[in-house]
Amino acid sequence: ETGVTQTPRHLVMGMTNKKSLKCEQHLGHNAMYWYKQSAKKPLELMFVYNFKEQTENNSVPSRFSPECPNSSHLFLHLHTLQPEDSALYLCASSPTDLPNEQFFGPGTRLTVL
Amino acid sequence: DAKTTQPNSMESNEEEPVHLPCNHSTISGTDYIHWYRQLPSQGPEYVIHGLTSNVNNRMASLAIAEDRKSSTLILHRATLRDAAVYYCILCGFGNEKLTFGTGTRLTIIP
Asked: What pLDDT score was predicted for residue B98?
């Protein structure tokens, strides 16, 4: 499989649940990203990883916990979420050399009840 | 990050060229101009980028003003599949972050 894949594509969870979103890229990239896209709002960058190291945390609440075990995989662990966290969560990857062309996955549509 | 300004929406007829404008009057000398688009129910997709010279690829052309304070994405022959939100983004040298605005929603009329 090529490109950036995300699982699950849809997720419904209660506020007390713990779940994880998974992202995988088969492009040989060393940078990976999590974005959040809420209804009628621009995409917001959440986290950036370069060579498995977190290089950006855009003031994201601690109920979102990213994990990057290797350059091909990125996780977003979710716990004690709020209904306002319902959104489309997008993963992207890019090579580390300029310019920064990012390849996006299809996203996980998350609903928090 | 330098900001960009785009019209909220545009319409174009199918099989005609489309010119999507973007203003970026505060662009710095090392900012690249990127264009992405987001089709309905999909993640964004890279379209094209440039620094100073006009650029062409299989998807589109990018025309950059001589003073670099504006640019235009050109779709040479729009199809229904080109209906999407188009984002114009500046990305500075050594900066891996893309800051998305609200973009231009392009509607293609059959």
From this structure: 86
Angle at A27 between CA A42 and CA B52, to 5 degrees: 60
User: Cβ separation of A42 and B91 shorter than 8 Å?
Assistant: no
Closest A-chain CA to B35: A101
- DSSP codes joined into one string, A88-112: EEEEEEE-SSSS---EE---EEEEE
Please state, in angstroms and rounded to a whole number, the distance separating the CA atoms of residues B84 and B87. 10
Segment A27-44, tens digit of pLDDT = 999 999 999 999 878 899
What single-letter DSSP state applies at residue A61? -
* Residue B98 near chain A (CB below 8 Å): yes
For residue A88, give the amino acid letter: L
B88 in contact with chain A, both atoms CB, cutoff 8 A: no
Mean pLDDT (whole number) for A45-53: 92
Round to whole Å and give the CA distance between B78 and B16.
Answer: 6
Q: What is the pLDDT of residues A52-104, one digit of tens each?
A: 999 889 899 999 999 999 999 999 999 999 999 999 999 999 987 766 789 99
| DSSP state at residue B31 | P
Question: Cα torsion for A3, B9, A35, B56, to the nearest 10°?
Answer: 40
Does the beta carbon of B40 lie under 8 angstroms from any beta carbon of chain A? no
Question: Is the dihedral angle over the CA atoms A50, B3, A35, B50 positive or is it negative?
Answer: negative
Say if CB A25 and CB A49 are below 8 A apart. Answer: no
